[in-house]
Amino acid sequence: MASCLVLLAAAVVLGVRALGREPTVTLLANWTGDDERNLRQAVIEPFERKYHVHVDYQGSSAESQVLGADVEAGTPPDVVVLTGPGELADYAGQKQLQPLDGLIPREDFGASWATPLADGHVYWFPLKADLKSIVWYPAGTSEAERRRARDDPAQWCVGMGSGATSGWPGTDWIEDILLQQHGPGVYQSWAGGRLSWRSPQVRRAWTTWGRLMGAGTSSSLLRRTLQTGYAEASAPVTATPRGCTLEHQASFIRTQSTAWSQVDGRYAPSSDLIPGSTADDSWEVSGDLVALLHTTPQARQLIRYLSSPTAQRAWATAESAFSVDIRAQPTTTGPTWHHTLATTLLSPSATHCFDASDAMPPTIRDAFAEAAIDYLAHPGHLDSLLTTLETLRQAPGQTWLPAVCDRAP
Predict the structure, then answer these.
(1) CA max distance for the chain
(2) Which CATH superfamily is domain 23-128+286-344 in?
(3) 273-312 pLDDT tens trace
(4) Residue (of 407, 392, 408, 371) closest to 86 by Cα position
């Protein structure tokens, strides 16, 4: 009888949907494969059951292009999840986003996560967060061994490939170096469009990265770096002898990469290994940010749900990821590395600065990623690359975020 009731309930749900009587909300994000399956099971299906609203989900690795085409056609999704606040700020400037005032508990997210724009409104909040100012290494690798590996470009696990967004692992490096060498104030000025790309601080970050990577010195190393996808960059760490030892990559790579699982990957703050670091407890972060494009009752309900501790906690658990909602406190169970990363993301004494390129206008973000690839192959091009990026910075009509760090001076 129980089985019959379950089948009957499912048939009723399908029948209501087929007749178009169940309210629907459209959601666009970049999660596909296992990530999409986790999202459906941990977040979407509980929402549908609780509120009797169908979520029409579309996952795409070319999300920015899909969203741009939908907006241009006048058929945007109701809700979108993007990694770039700079891109979202651009849409807000075009009046494509709806303010989230009264829909989300703004006070539960730090200033670098739910950033008010110049009009005073908040247009996004994080569903998932990652820590970026970290370097992974195999368990048992001593501090002295890590120091020696740092000075050998071949010992860095680096892959610049990422389809249409290739080059972003390099921008992460340069951003983090600038943050650690010159602190949150300089970082925020640069990410907010107020510091020249030709400034001594920015140039120093590029050249420091170039020395660590051995830019322009080894054709075989360059081929490995440019032809490897970021998700496969750590594979050589499991070889005998090891093909690489250190990886500067965000917290998500620990569970995404089977290589780091095999070698019981541990992490150190990037400030321990970046030459010339002076910043104190400063961390680059990133996140998947939820925004509202089309206001309907069911879209507003989904926004409220995704910003709730229930959804935040469920998605973080499903992905072995992190929430920065202060109500969704991490548990003390699980691996130590996971708990300490979560604690750092929530630490009130730390300074958290959002990924600078993600916070920049999309044209500059994309040019920055391309320049990072060019620089590795041709470090002598640095002057022209910085000049091009500076010209883009000065272009009129761009939307810059007023703040990207939660504790910058």
Answers:
(1) 75
(2) Periplasmic binding protein-like II (3.40.190.10)
(3) 999 999 999 999 999 999 999 999 999 999 999 999 999 9
(4) 392
